[in-house]
Amino acid sequence: MAVTAGTKALDARAIRADFPIFEQLIHGKPLAYLDSANSSQKPRQVLDAMTEFYSTSYANVHRAVHVLGERATAGLEGAREKVRRMLNAPDVREIIFVRNATEALNLVAYSWGGNNLGPGDAVVVTELEHHSNFVPWQYIANRRGAEFRMLPLDDNGDVDLSGLDAIARECNVKVVATNLVSNSLGTISDIAPLVRWAHEQGAIFVCDAAQAAPHLAVDVQALDCDFLAVSGHKMCGPSGIGALWGRSEILQSMEPFLLGGHMINSVRYEKTTWGELPHKFEAGTAPIVEAFGLGAAIDYLNGVGLDAIEAHEHELAAYALGRMSEVPGITLYGPPAERRAGVVSFNMDGIHPHDVAQILDMQGVAIRAGHHCCQPLMRKLGVAATNRASFYLYTVPEEIDQLVDGLYAVRKVFA
Ligand SMILES: Cc1ncc(COP(=O)(O)O)c(C=O)c1O
Questions:
Q1: Which ligand 1 atom sits nearest the alpha carbon of residue 373?
Q2: Which residues of 24-61 are buried (b: 16+ CB within 10 A; e: fewer)?
Q3: Of residues 225, 236, 373, 374, which has the active-site annotation?
Q4: Burial letters for 166-179: b for 16+ Cβ neighbours within 10 Å, e otherwise?
Q5: pLDDT band per the 50, 70, 90 thresholds, residue 6
Q6: How far is the CA of 101 from the centre of ligand 1 (A)?
Q7: Nearest atom of ligand 1 to the alpha carbon of 182
């Protein structure tokens, strides 16, 4: 599928050749990997960058004066600068490496929420959140005696903002935390009104961009958020690394999250003082090789172009929604294709999602079945679980055809 709509064309078939995972058969069938919202596959460029670093330059960072230590440090800091550019963050010291988006969000919940929330205050999230942007806030609000409020979804599946005035009257809103792209429904949310409202309340706005950053251009200055979290493994990078961006003045005012080596300025028996940003929040040995991989992944995505990736996913989503709606007894969830990333959640009448996913696996089709770490949303949809097919820059329409053929095979098994 070539994408031409006002943006550089994306040749998914050529891109696919960069991903060694597709050079195999699964159960004798070509692999249709439709689970990228869960975790993305890795191009050779990322694998090679990591292998080469291990083979030629591996050492710990920031601690050695030898050549290898300097190469490692330059690579890690180079990756930090690539993340800064990708997110259009004003200052590279605002980029903190963490294990994943979950850790990034916990860092903000514990270090900011743990010291700034109290009785009468409120944290506001939405019904569309991944547990990673829900549970830490629920926990820290409860622990600090603050209110935890959830904005419900309306009948169109969009966040209902009609209750904001009531929340503002009842409590002192200190945190608003939402995603930009939903992992369950693929919804691309317009968060601008919520960011404005948060700031009118004097609250911080925390953006979970774990699902957005892989699929569209994310600009922290344009979003005007205060914190933003991403995971490397969802954007062609390795697992074990993610990043938190935060406004430097807020980060500077915060207590550290994890304590130990590397994050200190001085340690005395009487008192320990903290290092400068970003080191204050990076205790222990960094994810060094993972940073090399993440840097290579960002180069790769930039080479393709995030606008082209977004357009490609809209086309795939439209194609999938059209083809899948022909399958008898299917329920499709989520917004129209133009407002969603490459994610389609669905259920087959009377067939458990795990059965669907297992039969599809026998056809070489990998999808996810479950609650997608979105139990509040599942409750809203009135289901325990859904199936989810998700697409990325290497997805081709034939994989969606393979999925649809597989769904007919599922129907036959349960006929
Ligand atoms: C929207 C969203 N937020 C947060 C996360 C958590 O990401 P990780 O498991 O990499 O911490 C995910 C992962 O699926 C996600 O989709």
A1: 14
A2: eebeeeebbbbbbbbebbbbebbbebbeebeeebbbeb
A3: 373
A4: ebbeebbbbbbbbb
A5: low
A6: 6
A7: 1
- The span from the CA of 46 to the CA of 297, in Å, is 6
Give, for 352, the enclosing helix (H) or strand (E): none
Catalytic residue status for 236:
no
197-238 pLDDT tens trace? 999 999 999 999 999 999 999 999 999 999 999 999 999 999
Q: Which residues contact 40 (CB under 8 A, 6 or more apart)?
A: 214, 233, 234, 235, 236, 392
CA of 415 to the centre of ligand 1 (A): 36
Round to whole Å and give the CA distance between 274 and 264: 4
Query: How many CB atoms are closer than 10 A to CB 316?
Result: 29
Ligand 1 closest atom vs CA 233:
10
Q: How far apart are the CA of 130 and the centre of ligand 1, in A?
A: 7
Q: How many alpha carbons fall within 13 Å on the CB side of residue 100?
A: 11
- Per DSSP, the residues of 154-202 read -TTSSB--TTHHHHHHHSEEEEEEEESB-TTT-BB---HHHHHHHHHTT
343 CA → ligand 1 middle, Å: 14
CA angle, residues 280, 110, 119, in degrees to nearest 5: 135
Which amino acid does the sequence have at 251? L
CA of 165 to the centre of ligand 1 (A): 30
390: Cβ below 6 Å to ligand 1? no
Our answer on whether the CB atom of 244 is closer than 6 Å to any ligand 1 atom is no
Q: Is the CB of 286 under 6 A from ligand 1?
A: no
313 lines ligand 1 (CB under 6 A): no
pLDDT band at 7 (very low <50, low <70, confident <90, very high): low
74/55 Cα distance (integer angstroms): 16
Number of H helices, E strands in the chain: 15, 17
Task: Choose one of 102, 103, 125, 244 to mutate for the ligand 1 pocket test, by most ligand atoms within 8 angstroms of C-beta.
Answer: 102
